[in-house]
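Go through this:
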Amino acid sequence: MDYTRLKFDRPHPKVLRITMDNGKMNSADRAMHAELTQIWRDIDADPTVNAAILTGAGKMFSAGGDFGMIQEIMRDFDTRTRVWKEARDLVYNLINCSKPVVSSMRGVAVGAGLVCGLLADVSIAAKDCRIIDGHTRLGVAAGDHAAIVWPLLCGMAKAKYYLLLCDQLLGDEAERIGLISLAVDDSELDAKALEVATRLAEGAQSAIRWTKYALNNWLRQAGPVFDTSLALEFLGFSGSDVKEGLAAHLEKRKPAFPPDSAL
C-alpha cells in the first residue's frame, strides 16, 4: 500500500509481478525512483515471494529519467545527494535481493528501469525492444548500472561502444552480444517471463538463492568501479554539459556541447 508507481499482482502463488506504471511512459520520476530502490528489500523480506517479474505498463518498459527530476538534481544539492544515494542503493539492493528476478522488457528500456532490467537474474526482451543507455548524450558519465554490469555481460569493447556513443540496441542484437538472457517475439514476452519465473519459484529455493548469491560476487567485486562511475555521473549534474544535453532533449535536437579545456 506504500507504493504509488509500482503495481502488483500474483500470476502464480509464489511469483510477484511488479509493473512500473506512472502514466508518463513509465519514466522514473521522484516517486518511482524511490520505489525501485525499496522494492527489492521488501521482496527479500517477504516469505510469500519466491521469484519476481519486473515489467512496464502498456507498450513501454520505461522511458528513462523524468526530465523534471533531472532539473531538480541539476539545481539542488540536497536533491542531488538524495538521488545519488537512491541510485547506489537501487543497484546494491537488487544485487543483494535473495529472490531471483526476471525482467520483461518491451517498447523502450532506458534509465532506472533499464538498471533493473539488466541487473535482473534473467533478462528477457522483445526482439524489437529498444535498449538505450543515454547518459553521455545527456552530458553525464554512464553511472547507474552501466560500469558494473555491461563489461561483464557483453565485453569491454561492446560496452565502450554503446556507453560512449549511446547507440540503441534492439532486443535480438542485445541477446546476440550477451547483454540480455533471451529475446522473444513481443506476443510471447509475458508468457515467457511467467514461465521462467514459475520455474524459479517452484525450484529448490536454497540452491537457486545461493547460486544467485555466489554469482553476484562478480558484481560485488566491481563495487569500486560502480561507485566511481556513479560519483562521476552525479558530479556531472553540476556542470555545463548536462544543461546543453537536457535542453537538446527538451527541444528534440542534436546537442552542441561546449568545449571543455579543464579536462
Remarks:
- The beta strands are 6-12, 15-20, 51-56, 62-63, 101-105, 108-110, 122-126, 130-131, 169-170, 182-184.
- The longest strand covers residues 6-12.
